[in-house]
């Protein structure tokens, strides 16, 4: 099964471009939940995504409700947040998954996190770091999923 990266209202086009490149390189699917903090045609997005963007499987959703109302695959949904305590590598990712990431400045909404507490995971950090770059976070969790799916 493939991985699906779900970005909730991303704000920084360079992050989304880099994540698009990660998705292309890993044969993953990118889902963008509106509102975005930039235009899809913005040059920073295209520059960070390089020439891969045109070949990327990407879906744009007008709202979170539209995403949920679509025909989603029967694979797990995991929510990555600094507000969880379980590390991401404890998530069972070997069958693919929807990996949800929140806005760079706010994360995933509290309402979503509370409704899905058993599926919330974090990336452990030291030195009282508050967060990591969004594209870095996606890369960490996505490639752990690939490791579990393809090599375990």
Main-sheet strand order equals: 3-2-1-5-4-6
Note the run of SSEs as H and E. Answer: EHEHEHEEHEH
Measured distance between first and last alpha carbons? 14 Å
> What is the radius of gyration computed over CA atoms, rounded to a whole number of angstroms?
14 Å
Choose one word for the global shape: globular
Q: What percentage of residues falls in helices of 4 or more residues? A: 25-40%
Strand composition percent: 15-25%
Tell me the number of helical segments per DSSP (H or I, 4 or more residues long): 5
Number of strands: 6
> Can you tell me the residue ranges where pLDDT is under 50 for at least 5 consecutive residues?
none
Largest sheet: 6 strands, parallel
Average pLDDT metric: 93
| Structural class category | alpha/beta
Write the layout of secondary structure elements.
Blueprint (H helix, E strand, L loop, with lengths): L2 E6 L4 H14 L2 E5 L9 H7 L8 E4 L2 H6 L7 E4 L16 E5 L8 H6 L4 E2 L12 H18 L1
Parallel strand pairs: 1-2, 1-5, 2-3, 4-5, 4-6
Helix pairs in contact: 1-2, 1-5
């Amino acid at each position: 099964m493939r991985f699906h990266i779900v970005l909730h209202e991303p704000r920084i086009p360079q992050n989304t471009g880099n994540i698009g490149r990660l998705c292309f390189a890993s044969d993953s699917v990118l889902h963008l939940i509106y509102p975005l903090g930039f235009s899809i045609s913005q040059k920073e997005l295209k520059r960070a995504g390089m020439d891969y963007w045109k070949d990327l499987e990407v879906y744009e959703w007008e709202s979170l409700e539209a995403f949920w109302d679509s025909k989603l695959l029967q694979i797990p949904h995991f929510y990555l947040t600094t507000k969880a305590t379980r590390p991401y590598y404890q998530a069972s990712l070997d069958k693919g998954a929807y990996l949800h990431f929140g806005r760079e400045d706010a994360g995933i909404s509290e309402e979503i996190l509370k409704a899905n507490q058993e599926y919330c995971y974090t990336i452990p950090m030291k030195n009282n770091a508050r967060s990591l770059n969004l594209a870095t976070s996606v890369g960490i969790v996505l490639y752990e999923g690939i490791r579990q799916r393809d090599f375990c």
